[in-house]
Amino acid sequence: xxxxxxQPYTFAGMERKTHAVSPTTASTPDPDDIDGVEGEAADPxxxxxxxxxxxxxxxxxxxxxxxLLAATAATVVREFEEPASVESVPPFFVxxxxxLLIGACxxxxxxxxxxxxxxxxxxxxxxxxxxxVLFIPLEAFAWTLTFTQEPIHTPSIAPSMxxxxxxxxxxxxxxxxxxxxxxxxxxxxxxxxAVVLGVVVLGVVVLSFHRPVVHRWDEDPGIAAPVxxxxxxxxxxxxxxxxxxxxxxxxxxxxxVDVSDGLVALAGSDGRESWTYRLPGQVIDHTGxxxxxxxxxxxxxxxxxxxxxxxxxxxxxxxxxxxxxFPADGWYQFGATxxxxxxxxxxxxxxxxxxxxxxxxxxxxxxxxxxxxxRTGDDLWSKVSEENDEALCHFGENPVLRDEVLLVARLxxxxxxxxxxxSHGRGVPVQVGYAVLDxxxxxxxxxxxxxxxxNDRPWSMWSFGISRVETxxxxxxxxxxxxxxxxxxxDVATDxxxxxxxxxxxxxxxxxxxxxxxxxxxxxxTEERDEGRNVIEILFARAGEGGDPEVTxxxxxxxxxxxxxxxxxxxxxxxxTGLVMWDARGFGDxxxxxxxxxxxxxxxxQETTTVLTGRGSVADPVVAPGAVVLALSDRVIGIG
Length: 640
Known about the structure:
Layout: E1 10-11, E2 14-15, H1 52-81, H2 91-107, H3 114-145, H4 158-178, H5 187-209, E3 214-216, E4 234-239, E5 247-250, E6 255-258, E7 262-266, E8 273-278, E9 286-290, E10 295-301, E11 307-313, E12 319-325, E13 340-341, E14 351-355, E15 368-373, E16 379-384, E17 386-388, E18 391-395, E19 400-402, E20 405-413, H6 415-419, E21 430-437, E22 444-452, E23 465-472, E24 475-481, E25 487-491, E26 496-500, E27 511-515, E28 520-530, E29 533-543, E30 549-556, E31 568-574, E32 577-583, E33 593-600, E34 609-615, E35 622-624, E36 627-631, E37 635-639
Antiparallel strand pairs: 1-2, 3-8, 4-37, 5-6, 6-7, 7-8, 9-10, 10-11, 11-12, 13-14, 14-15, 15-16, 17-18, 18-20, 19-20, 20-21, 21-22, 23-24, 24-25, 25-26, 27-28, 28-29, 29-30, 31-32, 32-33, 33-34, 35-36, 36-37
Helix pairs in contact: 1-2, 1-4, 1-5, 2-3, 3-4, 4-5
């Protein structure tokens, strides 16, 4: 019987074949192209689970994409914050976002090798890191270019969002550039990266708008140090620790420093901090003192064209008024810190006094004085110049609110005195004095006028007003001056007054820099041509009760690296010492020389000594309890 070999058979018309099965290896997908398992075609047996390195890769991609989105959104937000200004988006913002978007296009290119992936991620990481490092100086530079002297501080999340977005791109790109090998990219990993960035952005936004107040006070500041009898050397120095010093005021126990975001009070004897009130991250528009330095205040404008006010005790730093509405118009005047009235007995009566320029009286015009309610901005009352006993009586500039009364300068004369265009008023009787008014009702509580009879040096209405206020013991001294150089010194407590004539017809009167019951000292600036150059000097003339100059001392401007006619000066009197600050800065130039000189006002006159020199920005010195204080941009110097 024959044995047959088995043949292949068919089933349902198909031939059955047998063949050997060889194992196959699944290809590893590009980590930037595979987002996970999708559809029924995926084989769970051949899919490799994501490793920790793969999850880091997904996390990095989430950071990159979410960071790009945050940076782009920050640019859009910045544009809509100031839609009318093309400069509201600095050019480097646009350039940076464009570069990052170009880098993002590379990250989405399919079928890249590991080396190519690392290379483009490294390129993106370098670009993003450079943007992160340069963000702060470039932002400061762009802010300088677009600065428009606008004091209103509007918090914004755009800078924070941009910085965080660029930092996230840099972080994610560096992770991608440094990872060992590619693998599957889980979708959940991307989400984690985006969520982490979102939490960071949210936290920074919350912190940006929540700026805690820094308030430290001293319940017992002790006895205030007296004003130094002379200023000869540096006795202390206070470092602003990165803050910007703008100006210094004189308080009851020492200087009060304006550091742009608030106030810091220093002890005049040693320069230690006694109290602080600051709003970090914000900008305070104006600061000053009230009631002879007993109260300090600061005012901040708002985007709604309003203002907020803080008032605190200058000795302890304790708040009397905190963040309350202050909408009064025309409340600020440079150098005039006595135009706001505050009394702890009646804190609701926060008043602001204002006066028209005194020279508006010339040519038949009128002058006026008004008091407004600082809480509402409404005028309480207004008084206009009027006729009195056939004389026309006008108000002077710089009214003073002190001890719950309003002090204002007064000048009465025949109408012909004010009709003269040159305002010489020769031969026309003139009366000069002051009035005490109730600031709430405008009632005249007291008025006193003195006959001015010096026809050789006639009084002038130009810049007529209260030029200086000094507390002498329990009394108050006023210096009333006009453009002609003469001055009237009034003791309010005794209601006594004396005229102090100009030093000479050639030099004029100068400004009153020292005021006591016994003597009045004025600083007169003189200029003379000597061998083709201007010679500038400050002449201190001290006059006693008789009115005649007793001591005349002169100090000459030094060579501070600029033509003499560009030298600016500041002068004051400390005890028996005359101080002069020579400042060579031109407009907008903060890198010039300055020198502080001192000269004795006692007989015989002594040589001028140089107390301190420097280069850079310096504000006018302030005579405060304990020291003469100089405000530099980054520190404060006490001289005693």
